[in-house]
Sequence to fold (623 residues):
Amino acid sequence: MSLLELKNVSKIYGDLKALDNVSLHVDQGEWVAIMGPSGSGKSTMMNIIGCMDKPTSGEVLLDGVDISRESSKKLTDIRRDKIGLIFQQFHMVNYLTAVENVMVSQYYHSMPDEKEALEALGRVGLRERARHLPSQLSGGEQQRVCVARALINHPELILADEPTGNLDEANENIVLDLFAQLHKEGTTLIVVTHDPEVADAAQRTIVLEHGKVAREVINENFGK
Amino acid sequence: MKHFSLPVNNLIRKPGRTTVLALLTAFLALAVFGGSVVVLSLRSGLNSLEARLGADIILVPSQAQSKVSFQNMFLQGTTGAFYMDASVPEKALEVEGVEKAAPQTFLASLKADCCSIKIQVIGIDPERDFTVQPWITRSLTRDLGDMDVAVGCKVEADVGEIIRIYEQRCKVVARLEATGTGLDTAVYCDMNTMNTLLRAAEEKGVSHKIESGDQVISAVYVKVKDGYDIDAVNSRLNGHIRKVTAVRTRSMITGVSDSLAGVSRTVTVLIAAVWVLAFMILLLAFLLIIRERTREFAVLRLAGASRGMLSRMVLAESSLCGLLGGLIGVGLAALLLFPFAQLIESALNLPYLTPKPGTVLLLAAGTVLLSAAVAAFSSVIAAYRLSRVDPGAALREGN
Fold:
């Protein structure tokens, strides 16, 4: 069953076609990697799927809803309810502790629940660092807090943009293990990456070039 | 609670920024509350003076104006005495339009062995008096007896204490409410006690020629009947009674009233200037914060905050800063104003009566709320712009 479907999606900035008539679909529970060189349209696609931007033309169906036609307010609601976002930079609120950063997502989604936020931090191996401020955490730890924040509201889709781009190998493995666990639990994952090793962890890789889908690769070794 | 914990957290975890914003609003609150209390105190002082004078016209001996500043006796409590014939009230009552005429007699005590304190003594006739007696009645339920005195609130003597005036022992039976005028530094007695004191003063060689057996008075307070023109009655009194000058009380108060208007205007201009300045600085401060917080707001947007939620968050933060600043400003103003009320009074040289606690509390609460509202209002532009942050673009900039 399809969770996400892009139909002839284009995004044009002046003379530049960042996305050029792209069509693809992602099934519920699938783990997809999106690869491509710089300027291939990865970030544009991520922004459109993540309800941060709208396409110039085409349809984007997320869980059956065409988000290319929705208002900004409705897009905020959809992002809050259905999507967990992870970025390459560790975007945390610098005056909040690790657990409070996780609870921020709860504030705007339902009700803050510290116990649940601590459990999410435990899941990324940071239960003991819950009361630390971002400045007291390493880059890898901050990224794991961002993962905990992305999954706290049990989103249907985790959307990650170069999630391991700033991490050492140990932290990269921790994050990929977490993705594997989330995948097993049925969460859909879309991971934008430059890193072939990260892409190899996914079931399927979509390669973008010049704003178009150049090819799709099924990972035969997935799960082995 | 749900949306409130983030603003509170932000204020607590950014103590430097919070302190600067709170101090700015504290400055505003200090000016508003402090200035308003000064103006209200001056108005209360003037009202009190009007109430205490309570008469339309005052009759004094013609030479009184040259002997002592009659006005200063009421405003600053300077001592002085002048005398005229005790029949003046009856003569005044013969004049068309005069409803009441109440005599008062003044005596200045000495700063010498014979007197406990240098003070103005005012003798009244409780039967006829309509200005001081109602004021005394609020503190003393019976009439003033022989050698009893009621003291103004600034006289250093307690109820039950004996004070000596020209070697005469007078018992303090009441302390009167504050009026904020020179009347607070005087001592009040009935005419019998005043006659005893006048004779004692004369024996000391300090008083004035008093013809034996005759009562003397210093001033007559005149109330004009309703419907009569006060100026016309004033002229008739001047023509009817020789060696006496009729002075309209309003002319005495006009000077005070003009000074009060001048001080009020200055204070109002100062408050307005502080308002504009504080508002502009706050506006600028909040605009500068936009750049610093763009990324934070982008993160919150991605975490699911709507634009409205972020606007409310900024407004909640600025209101809280304003509340805090308002409390600090009002507290500072109270610390500066109330313990030094006497100093302010003598510096301004005007009747000064601190408003009642209820009024002060109301003013304080209003100032704190106003500070919060001004702080919130000055952050409206910042709230709007921060809520419009494009989260994707803002975070890509970070990358």
Summary: Residues 11 and 312 of chain B are 15 Å apart (CA to CA). Chain B touches chain A at residues 2-3, 5-6, 9-10, 13-14, 295-296, 298-307, 309, 390-392, 395-396, 398-399 (CB under 8 Å). Chain B has two domains: 5-48+256-398, 63-242. Chain B has a mean pLDDT of 83.
